[in-house]
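Same chain as my last thread, 459 residues:
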Amino acid sequence: MAISFADTAKITIKSGRGGDGHVSFRRELYVPNGGPDGGDGGRGGDLIFEVDKGMNTLNDFRMKRKYVAESGEEGGKKRCHGKDGKDLIVKVPYGTVVKEASTGQVITDMSGDNIREVILTGGKGGLGNMHFATSVMQAPRFAQPGQQAQELEVILELKVIADVGLVGFPNVGKSTIISMSSNARPQIANYHFTTIQPHLGVVNVGDESFVMADIPGLIEGAAEGLGLGHDFLRHIQRCRVLVHVVDAAGTEGRDPLDDIEKINAELERFDPELLNKPMLIAANKIDAICDYGPAAANADAAATDTAEGSIGSAGTVGAGDAPQNPVDKIKAIYEPKGIKVIPVSAATGRGIKELLFAIAELLKTAPKDTLIYEKEYDIKAHMFEELPINIYRESGHVYVVEGPRIDRMLGYTNLEDEKGFKFFQNYMKEQKIIDQLKKLGLTEGDTVRVGGLEFDYYE
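reply #2:
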């Protein structure tokens, strides 16, 4: 059975359609010529995203792919207003980035203070025929249709928000470290890709606390999308501090120095800014190093602030001797670059305390702002453009203007209001609809039907 990681999902979302306005006339005893009394349609429900901090994956969206808010009901007789549609609240994990599927542009980032946002607005209810009675037209037999729903295909991407991210190749001990350091209890086993989703744990160090994430193991080519590379790498972008966990003992035949270089290369290919984050190296599995006994381990833990005094095969050797221990080799290269190396044994707990205090110190100087992705996709602007308008001559002196864009414009416009009617007139001119009608033969006194509403045209 294939293993997949549910930190992305593609779904379709749709707001509720506005209810149509109603066409009816007052019918009562002794009132033979009752006027129009058709009520307005109800407003469609909004499609809302809301953070649920109890969620930590997008698994739920694998089972259900379409989310639709309730539509408004049609207006009724006797000026009865149609019932408004219910909003639909879609719960997502904290840190979810919502993108438009075809362009990949960011619609919203459900992080920071943004824990609830209306993504798609429900359609406005159409006006009943009671609104269109005039001294000239006392019995209008038309009503305004409800505004169409907004529909969009989106991609959800979960980018874990943690203070500290543990990165490294598979099976180097990241899950064990986080289980020894926090209240997290990830699945741990001695085979590759045990972890297929990040685990978060709260770590308490003295009076300080921070959130640590066990980022699933990377492989070469991850930045190009090999394996589950992109799925894992995107989580690292939110972390304030990165901790490279490396198998210092080389228990699987890999060179720990080569591992660090390869991981750095993958981080740089995915996002060069990742290498600018504050870093530590956790040289794990020192219990598996033959010349790294308890005495040497304790001596090294007490000297983590310096790269001098390397440990050789017979214990402590002079600073001038060539480093023999793999931990010393890592220190010799990275500590001069300002990257502290902490020897640990996650299996026995040796060095874990020193590692956590070093992380806490590094966090004090690390930038505190969480990376929040800026909005790139304007839903309203895109919803209103690229929709067709059909203009044609129906018969003798009757012309028709119809289509989704017209329905949407009328749904936003209150024609009873003077400003609303002026907006309608300007829209007809700006979209060159009047010019096109004139080309079809429109003259004064002709009837123009716009989205179900009828008007007599005068210059």
